[in-house]
Amino acid sequence: MHISFRPIQKKEHDLLLEIYASTRENELALVPWTIEQKAVFVKQQFDAQHSYYREHFSKAQFLMVLGDGEPVGRLYRDDRENEIRIIDITLLPKFRGKGIGGKILRDILADGKRRNVLVRIHVEKHNPALRLYRRLGFQSIEEQGIYYLMEWTPSQETVEV
């Protein structure tokens, strides 16, 4: 599958909400809410996250991940002077576990190595992708509530996945 990126378009709000909602499915399966209550909650959380990212990462790239030209996920990255911050990388469920995330991350790490900058990301402690980040050479440098702040340094060799 050919992976490419393009800036997110305003008309893709519903697709972005779907991508975000897919990250909350396991968590919401545990609460005794109706489908409607869950939908309202997810929309509120998505809107809050979206506003936060736009406010705090005003120079970031908000990208749609395309697989063979079709949307498969989102990548938000903030290229700073001394670091690349991966704000968010999420693939739709049917595209997870197919090597797409690994390829995207390896490309970001190659960019970090070329620029000689750190690559950082916050990862939820229960996120299955945590294993991927560790295989690629990310180290947990700080615990922040339910997240690890993970860091990759350009002196590290990236492990192939």
Task: Describe this protein's structure.
The chain is an alpha+beta fold and 161 residues long. The protein has one domain: Aminopeptidase (3-Layer(aba) Sandwich), CATH 3.40.630. 36% of the residues lie in helices and 31% in strands. The chain contains five helices and seven strands. Strands 1-2-3-4-5-7-6 form a seven-stranded mixed sheet, sandwiched between helices. A hairpin with a 2-residue loop joins strand 6 and strand 7 (147-152). It starts with a strand and ends in a 9-residue tail after the last strand. The model has no long low-confidence stretch (mean pLDDT 94).
What's the tally of helices?
Answer: 5
CATH topology: Aminopeptidase
Could you tell me how far the N terminus lies from the C terminus, measured between alpha carbons in angstroms?
Answer: 16 Å
Oligomer: single chain
Question: What's the helix and strand layout?
Answer:
Elements: E1 3-7, H1 13-22, H2 25-28, H3 35-56, E2 61-67, E3 70-79, E4 83-91, H4 100-115, E5 118-124, H5 130-135, E6 139-144, E7 147-152
Parallel strand pairs: 4-5
Antiparallel strand pairs: 1-2, 2-3, 3-4, 5-7, 6-7
Summarize the structure.
By secondary structure, the protein is an alpha+beta fold.
Tags for this entry?
7-stranded mixed sheet; single chain; Aminopeptidase; about 35% helix; about 160 residues; globular; 7 strands; alpha+beta
